Amino acid sequence: MRRHLPGQDLLRMLRKLLLRGIWGLVEVWRLLGLLENPNTRKFLVCLFFPTLFWLFQTFVKGLDREMVRKETTLTFYGGVNEIGGNKILLKDGDTAVFLDFGMSFALRKQYYSPPLLSPKSERSLQELGILPKLEGVYRFDDKPPAVDAIFISHGHMDHSAYLSFVKREIPVYCGETTKIILQTFGEIRKADLEFNVEGIDFHAFRTGDTVKVGDLEIEPVHVDHSLPGAYGFIIHTSRGAVVYTGDFRDHGAKNEMTREFVERARAAEPVAVVCEATNMTNVSVSSEKEVEAKLNHVVSQTEGLVLAEFAYTDVDRLNSFYRTALKNNRCLTVSLRQAYLIEALSSDRKLRIPRLSDEGVLIFRKSKERLYAWERQILERYQDKVVDAEQVSKRQQNIILTMSLYDLEQLVEIQPKPGSCYVFSSSEPFNEEMEIDFERLVNWLKHYGLPQYHVHVSGHITPLRLKACLKEIGAKKIFPVHTENAELFAKFMRDLKSQVEITEKGREYSL
Description:
The protein has 16 helices and 21 strands. The longest helix has about 30 residues, at about 40-70. Helix 1 (about 10-30) packs antiparallel against helix 2, helix 7 runs parallel beside helix 15 and helix 8 packs parallel to helix 9. By secondary structure, the protein is α/β, with parallel strands linked by helices. Helix content is about 35%, strand content about 20%. It has helices at about 10-30, 40-70, 105-110, 120-125, 155-160, 175-190, 255-265, 290-300, 315-325, 335-345, 375-380, 390-395, 410-415, 430-450, 465-475, 485-490, and strands at about 70-80, 85-90, 95-100, 150, 170-175, 200-205, 210-215, 215-220, 230-235, 240-245, 270-275, 305-310, 330-335, 360-365, 385, 400, 420-425, 450-455, 475-480, 500, 510. The protein has 3 domains: about 10-70; about 70-280 and about 460-510, Metallo-beta-lactamase, Chain A, CATH 3.60.15; about 290-455, Metallo-hydrolase/oxidoreductase (Rossmann fold), CATH 3.40.50.10710.
C-alpha cells in the first residue's frame, strides 16, 4: 500500500488556489461597485487577462520548482563491486540521508596492514580514496552538514565503522542493539582512528517505530543476520517507497524476522529495492540449527580440549556453542573481549544470550601484563569465573575455549592433549590476506596435532531465496550492492519483472 506524502497533491492544490484567487478578485471589484461603470469594466477586462496570464506563469514556475525540488535519487559511494563498504546517499528534494557508512575492507587493504601500518589521519584516507570525497559530511570539513541523518542497518564494520569521521552534528539512527555494539567497539578500540564513536548523536529505534527526517518517513524492520540488531529499511519518498535490505538471510535462528521484512516491503509497493547480493558463488546450504547439531556431533566425540573460533558478535553461534557445551558437560570459555560484549548486550532485555554469571560460562585471561580499563572491569566483577592457561590445561576435557588466530600463542602454555580438536566456525578465507592468515593457523594446528572442523553457515541469503524475496517484493528497479558479482546477479534475475541496475560508484540514479 503506497504511503501518502506531502507534495503529492500539489497540482490539485495549486489549481484550487488559482481559481479561488480569480474569483476573489472579481468579488472584490463587485463589492466596491467598480463593475457598474462601463469605462471601469472595460479597463478591468483589459487588466483581467494579463493578471490571469501572470497567475498562470506563477503556477507553472512554482510547479516546476516543486518538481525539481522533489527529485528522488540514489548515489552509491561504497558497496559497489565489493563486499561491504556500503555508503548509499538517498536524496528526496531538500532531504538527504545516508544508508550505512561502512569501511571498505577491499580499498583499505591496498594501502594498510594493521597494526604495523595503520591510517593516522582522516585526510590520508580521503587522499587515497578510501573515504569518498564528500563536502559537509566529515569532522575535518568546516562546511555545514550536507546530510540530515545517517541510518545504520547493523553493527558490522563494513556498514558502520566510518561513522568515526562523520560530523557529530549529523544524527545517527540505528537499532538499540547496534547502538550497544558500536559503543562497546568504541570502548574496546578507543585508540583506533577508525572506531571512534565518542560524541555521536545516536537515536535508537526498534521494529514498529517510524522515523521522520524532512519529508522522508523511514520504517526500520528487523531482519535475520549473523549478529543481533540487524534491520532493513522501508523509506517513503515523494516518488514512492525505497527498500534497503542491509545484510540479511532466512536460514538463521530468526528467519521469521526476514519474513516480516519481506512482507512489509511488498506491501509498500516500492519503486526501488537496494539489496545485498553477497552469496552468488560457492554457496553452501545449511542453517543455524544444522550448525548446532554438527557442533554437538564433534564435541561429543572429542576427549580433549575443544578450541573454537567464531565471530564474537555472532550471538546465534554463541548460543549454539553454549548449548553444545552444556549438553557435553563442558564450560564455554570466552575471551575478555567477548565477555565485555556479552556484559554490554545483557542490558538488552529482548536478546536471549548466556550471561557471564550463568553456570557453564568461564572467562579466559591471556598471559599479559598490561590490561585496559574495560578488561580490569570484567576481571574484578567476575573473579570467580576467570581461568588462565594453566587452569585450562588441567581441565581440557571440560572446556570449549574460544580462540582467534591472534590468541594461538596461548597454546604454548596450554599444551593441548592428544584427542583435542579445533572448530573453525567462521567464513572461509576469500582473499589473499585471509589465506595467508589461514595458512598460519594451519601451521599451528599441525604443530599440536589438532584436526580442524569447519562448521559454519553464512550470514547472507542464498541466491534462490534472494530471488524469491525480490520477486515477492516486486519493486520496479533493483540495485544490487555488497557484491563482487553484480553482472552474474543481473543475468540470474533477468526473468523478474523488475529492472536490474548495475551500480557505478559515485553515479546518481533518478527514481
